């Protein structure tokens, strides 16, 4: 999923890029409204984060132009303003949500996941054939979630990429290079610690017993495997 981040503050922009890329999103970034509009036309992102107070064009102006071009694209405003009038104006322009500065990483991820779920949700009356089952866990990519009985487990895009790859290669060992290339991208500098830490975190979320995993098995010195 490709995200456009339009934010004139360098530290906030880079922080959002780092955070969201760690979640598995592909990010492109703009430092002002003109650049945001050009990158939008060039890359056709799946979701846009728009700072309101930007040079050249503010977020409201960029949102208006996006809405004239695409009425369905998810847009989230980033704003330091807390006045209700600004929030109402943003939503009336067609924004799906807004995030107030200063914000925490959990809030950003939660709001993006919520908006992304609405965008990925299948049309009413259709069956989501993208779901798959690993052991006793039902994976629902369009919801960015997994279900076990009544338990709901939130998943990142990278979590989903890892699980889908293991599911598609079930019974086979998926080596580290294949996991990095598929789930991080070929341009990512491979680091075994990064992979192991992510798998460990994912196991804690989805396994009944992370110390005795039934979904993601380790094949020492090579990679990981899903056996069922």
Keywords:
Rossmann fold, five-stranded parallel sheet, elongated, alpha/beta, Arc Repressor Mutant, subunit A, 228 residues
Describe the protein:
- It contains 8 helices and 12 strands.
- With 228 residues, the protein is an alpha/beta fold.
- The strands form 3 sheets. It has a 5-stranded parallel beta sheet with strand order 2-1-3-4-5, sandwiched between helices.
- A hairpin with a 2-residue loop joins strand 6 and strand 7.
- Helix 2 packs parallel to helix 3.
- The longest helix has 16 residues, at 105-120.
Concise synopsis of the structure shown:
The protein contains eight helices and twelve strands.
Radius of gyration: 19 Å
Return the domain count. Answer: 2
| Distance, first to last CA | 28 Å
Shape: elongated
Write the element-wise H/E pattern from the N-terminal end onward.
EHEHEHEHEHEEEEHEHHEE
Q: Which spans have pLDDT < 50 for at least 5 consecutive residues?
A: 122-127
Structural class: alpha/beta
Name given to the CATH architecture of the largest domain: 3-Layer(aba) Sandwich
**What name does the CATH topology of the largest domain carry?**
Rossmann fold
Please give the largest β-sheet. 5 strands, parallel
**Major sheet: order of its strands?**
2-1-3-4-5
Beta-strand residue percentage: 15-25%
Helix content: 40-55%
CATH class of the largest domain: Alpha Beta
Number of strands: 12
Averaged pLDDT, please?
A: 86
Can you count the helices? 8
CATH homologous superfamily (4th level) name of the largest domain: Response regulator
